[in-house]
């Protein structure tokens, strides 16, 4: 067993091989399918063992690096790297990340990374006990980041489930209508039967919340049957701003952050992908984003309709002209209800883009005409208080994860190169996890 850092080519510690054409994929299957951009689906076949590294081979994700804890299938757009004996797979995963492999790509058209390039990379390898220690340190940070991500997923799912129960399925209204013996409209009868079938499993709401729901329904031309006393309004009547962003004059440093379509994904805003506007060349007066704004990608197939809500911010930030900003009128609609409402309409908004393939646009006029359900203010207020607790916790987790990512990205090259020793890194991580 080696006891010192030594210099080797990567093919001495990893076995490389290309993936194969993807088999049939189905979300109900067991094994992950990896392409050049990470997990792209599930299958019932495997061609790669557990604890392996996957490297993007072609295209814009050429050189990207992923780790699979379990057996998986790797497609022909990626390369498998399987660890050889007396080495840590997770350590070598971080080692590969440190190389910025996308810089080694070849090809003038389609970027390509091949096995020969990978095999010939010369690098310093730590003894196994240090490999394991380094992998543990960096893995601890990644585990915490993943835990925060999963927590945020759970928080959003819980908020959306409550929104759906109250404002889409109308469960509390159905329960009260059934208890009062009031008629159930035909389109809602199947939902009512499901509520009845739950029997004692239906959890009653606290009395002060229950009283805010009506016990009957009324028909509207716009949305069909809705709870009695609730209203239907156009989006532009409950918003004080509905506009596109600026056409920035970019600078490399300083200036004002500009959010673009790449920043918006999975109901989150990645501020690392923002660019900077020169406010001396392009004014931003009255154009900055605020807490509770909804930002919607508004051009292009595949990106149009993606949205995210703005959390607490401490600097001036704007959006570019490919992003639509909607700001709720808080005198009419509560932020928490507004955000959940817009998220619930995301799929529909994706479908109302106009124009030819590649030139699809989301027009402000179509957005303004969106008809929305408007419950009473007291009910919105209660939902808002529930939503904002989880929304702010989610935002806190995002900030924490960004901090952990920064620590990891600082430690990684120093640990891998030997510049930073394991005990010193362990102290740094212990202070933040």
Highlighted features:
433 residues, alpha+beta, Adenine-n6-DNA-methyltransferase TaqI, Chain A, domain 2, 11 helices, 23 strands, 21% strand
List the helices and strands and how they pair.
Layout: E1 6-9, E2 14-18, E3 31-35, E4 38-43, E5 52-56, E6 65-68, E7 72-74, E8 78-83, H1 89-98, H2 115-119, E9 122-125, H3 128-167, H4 171-180, H5 189-198, H6 207-210, E10 217-220, E11 224-227, E12 231-234, E13 239-244, E14 250-251, E15 256-259, E16 264-265, E17 268-269, E18 275-277, E19 294-297, E20 307-309, E21 317-319, E22 323-328, H7 335-344, H8 346-351, H9 364-368, E23 371-374, H10 377-417, H11 422-430
Parallel strand pairs: 3-7, 15-21
Antiparallel strand pairs: 1-9, 2-8, 3-4, 5-6, 5-8, 10-11, 12-23, 13-22, 14-18, 15-18, 16-17, 19-20, 19-22
